[in-house]
Structures are given as C-alpha cells and as structure tokens.
Amino acid sequence: DDPNLLPELKEYLPELKEITRVRTRRGYHYYFSLNGEYVKSTNNLFGRRLELKSNGNYVVAPPSIIKAHQYVYEIPLSEMLPIPKLLIKKEREPAPCVEDGKHKTFKIPKYHGQKVYCIRQILSRDLEEGERNNSLFILYNLLLQNKNTEEYSKKLVIEKNGSLSKPLTELDLKKIYRKAYNYGCNGIRGKLAYIKCGACEYRFKDGKLKDSNILI
Questions:
Q1: What's the number of CA atoms in the CB half-sphere (13 Å) around residue 140?
Q2: Helix or strand or coil: residue 103?
Q3: Structure letter (DSSP) for residue 206
Q4: Do residues 22 and 28 lie in contact, with contact meaning Cβ atoms separated by under 8 Å?
Q5: Please, are residues 43 and 51 in contact by the beta-carbon 8 Å criterion?
Q6: Quick one: DSSP state of residue 52?
Q7: CA-to-CA distance for 86 and 32, rounded, in angstroms?
Q8: Would you kindly state where each structural domain of the chain is located, as residue ranges?
C-alpha cells in the first residue's frame, strides 16, 4: 500500500505489470496463484514494508468500500498468474522440535488439511497450562478428520507436546487419543479462545478463489 516502494518492487518482480491487480486506497494489492507451492507470509518482504500473504490469510477485496474508496480490479482474477519463483519457499520436511537457546522451536510439519487454519494455529502456538489438553485433543481429531493416519496424527501430537514449555505427562497425553468429538467451528472456538477463523481458507466455497467467496 505504499506507492513509493513500487519502482523497487518491480525491479525484483518485473511481471507485476501483467498480473491481477487491485487498486486500494493507498496503492495496490497483487494476486498470484500458488499452484500447490508454499510461501511464508511476511510483512517485511525484501527488507521493506511490503506484505506477502499466503494461505490462511485474507485481504480486503473488491467490491469492498473502505473510507469512501471502492476496491476495484484493474486486472481481473481470470488473468491471475503463478507466483514468481523468487517468492516460493519450499515447505520443510516433517521434523520434531529443535533447541533454540532456552526454548524449543517447533517446525510445522507436512500434514493433510492445510486449508483448515485452526490446525496450523494449534501447531504454531506454545500452548499454555489450561489449554494444552483441549488443544491437543482437537488437533488429534482434526488431523484424523483430514485424512491423516492414526499413527501419523499421534506422532504429530507427541512432537507438538514435546515442544511445549510445559508439556503434558505421558499419562495425560494418552488421554488425548480417546473418543472422537463432533465439534464444528463454533465448538472449537468455544473450547479454544485463541482460535481465529477469519483467515481460514477452508471457508471458501468450492475451494476456488473468486469474487463471491473472498472474505471481506
């Protein structure tokens, strides 16, 4: 949203002039197709005040009106191009936690259900006392529901628990693998106050990006 950065950005990404573009109140939003690739969201792209949003994030989209300005496509979604290779960050292989000074850093592994954003929120959070049991229980069941095997789902829960500042005991962890739950999105939010659904790509209809299902 800072037009002053456009000349420098175009030096990195000359294809900007050809891709899907939205005129915002202060500048532009550019849309790329990931085509199965993985990129990491950042608000400091190329060391500048440039935001890059990946899956699990949302932006204001046409025909929204913010402070009397209507967002419009200057180049439509139908002309969206693949994301430039320069912006692609390959997803890491599954891995447990690694020591980082006095803390453990959990590297989010591969799993089925990438569009279900609450899975990633649980995996990326240093779960606190009082939220560990429900979080790991819901994580385990969400992994199963999204076609991860029972063995692999348990493996990820064990690795996630091991990365916590205060992990559950082995006895408490065994209670996680109990009868499946039937919570919907509202039920999960009721159990886990930190879960935010606004950025969940799973809410998109038909799994396709189009005007009617962009979160506004």
A1: 23
A2: strand
A3: G
A4: yes
A5: yes
A6: B
A7: 12
A8: 3-91, 97-205
